[in-house]
Design a protein that fits this description.
The chain is α+β, with helices and mostly antiparallel strands. The chain has 4 helices and 7 strands, in the order βααβββαβαββ. The protein binds coenzyme A. The site of coenzyme A has 21 residues, from strand 4, helix 3 and helix 4.
């Protein structure tokens, strides 16, 4: 499978919206089935210099992954960033998520010199937790009943990676 990881462009809005509302993705993210391309356009238009947004795209332009690193704006938290990640349901478990997260961490470590990168993940999202631990994240604590999923409240782990 040939794909490229590159910064997100306005033309990727429909593809990123499709991922965000996709079964197989929205259950373990904070997406909704009603998410529109217009929402995605607005989100992308509002990205600032502290937001580093990437897509993984096939040669035909299909968006198969999305990843974002957001550096905290508070002057006393400029060493901290948070990451978010999602891969198209048909392309999961093929290394795309690992490649996207490595792209974010290279930026965080070598170009932004961040010390701490953090994220939240559903407590039962074993694949994501495996990936995060593989790349140096550690669980810091369980946040209980933080989100709604399919008619129930769900817990999330707070995880972080301090620069090795
Ligand atoms: C979680 C997600 C980003 C991972 O990306 P991916 O491309 O599927 O992951 P990769 O193929 O790069 O790596 C998956 C790893 O998890 C392992 N894995 C797969 N299923 C697993 C499971 N049920 N339990 C533990 N490990 C699992 C794989 O063996 C692989 O490990 P390895 O690299 O050591 O061999 C992707 O599956 C996804 O988008 N899921 C839906 C949305 C989501 O959950 N996003 C994360 C929100 S925090």
């Amino acid at each position: 499978m040939n794909y490229t990881i590159r910064p997100t462009e306005p033309g990727d809005a429909a593809g990123t919206a499709a991922l965000r509302r996709m079964p197989g993705v929205l259950e373990t993210t904070l997406g909704l089935s009603s998410y529109r391309t217009a929402d995605s356009n607005a989100f992308l238009a509002n990205l600032g210099p502290n937001d580093h947004h990437f897509v993984a795209v096939l040669d035909d332009g299909t968006v198969i992954g999305v990843a974002c690193l957001q550096v905290f704006g508070n002057p006393r938290m400029r060493h901290v960033g948070s990451v978010a990640l999602m891969v198209h349901a048909d392309y999961q478990n093929m290394g795309v998520g690992s490649a996207l997260l490595k792209t974010l961490l290279d930026l965080a470590d070598n170009w932004l010199m961040l010390v701490r990168v953090e994220l939240t993940v559903f407590a039962d999202n074993e694949r994501a937790i495996h990936l995060y631990e593989k790349l140096g994240f550690e669980k810091e604590g369980l946040k209980r009943m933080t989100t709604v999923r399919d008619g129930k409240y769900a817990d999330e782990y707070m995880m972080a990676r301090l620069r090795p």
